[in-house]
Predict the 3D structure of the following.
Amino acid sequence: MTHAENNDAKRAADRPAMPKVLIVDDSVTIRRILGRALAEAGYQIEEAEDGREALERCRAELPDLVLLDIDMPVMDGLSTLRAMKDDEKLRTLPVLFLTAHTGGEDVAAGLALGAHDYLRKPCDPAELRARVSTALRTKALEDRLEREVRASHEISSTDPLTGLGNRRRFEARTAELAQQGGSRVPVGVLMVDADHFKRVNDRQGHGVGDIVLRIIAGRLGGAAGGDDTVVRWGGEEFIVLTPDATSAHVELLGECLRAAVADSPLAISHTLSLTVTVSVGCAIGAVEDVEAVLQAADDALYDAKSNGRNCVALRSHRRSDASR
């Protein structure tokens, strides 16, 4: 292969692949006509002859857009679109309906189900390419907006110093647990507080204090389980939320969190290491009573501090406690 051919091959490999369009129609002729018009514009083409085959191909290959005939045997276009909307993987795929009808009832039903647009058969190749291009651009804009919204939500629920979640993340997780398991699902709340943290700031400076908080955050995150949520509550205080909690579980988790911080010095720099400990207050209760559980964990944290720090204390919350 010549140097020029190598460059051409490299440019072809670096070039992004054109979108893949699945054409679904029971007519071979229609599929060929539409496929030829789109292939000339550079699109990758896949074909299916009915809705059932279309669903199989979508799940296997996930095209970028589906051209979907309304009238087909085995499974028509409206039924196919309903099945796509019920499928988490397929529900956002852009769909253009194809119809030979002059009336608008089927088209209106398809648009109501979430189709992006429609084309009447036979369609002009230039119009076909324009409608496909527009639908793909619209989908790209929707995806970009969704990413920006997710990024904005992530930023708003993240503590900028430690990278952990913040109170908003905690509230979102408790709401999620209540939705999944019901308001009475048991949760454990562990309140973790760095012991004598003011001394670190006073003696070493707030810059070192920030490093200490980041290291503690990393160790707590490493010690927590995969279903646990670790957030920075404020200052030198952290919260760990653990679902389906029992007293034995939260006490064991509290000891793991305590040991993760205290068992080895925190390496601040090449010349400075600090031994830092934490006190842990644990409480359990129903997710619907999470505010009261938080208060019980705070009370348990006070117990741990009173017991000499660098230890774990447990309190449980019951509905009868709320009236005391």
Remarks:
- Confidence is low (pLDDT under 50) at residues 320-324.
- The longest strand covers residues 186-194.
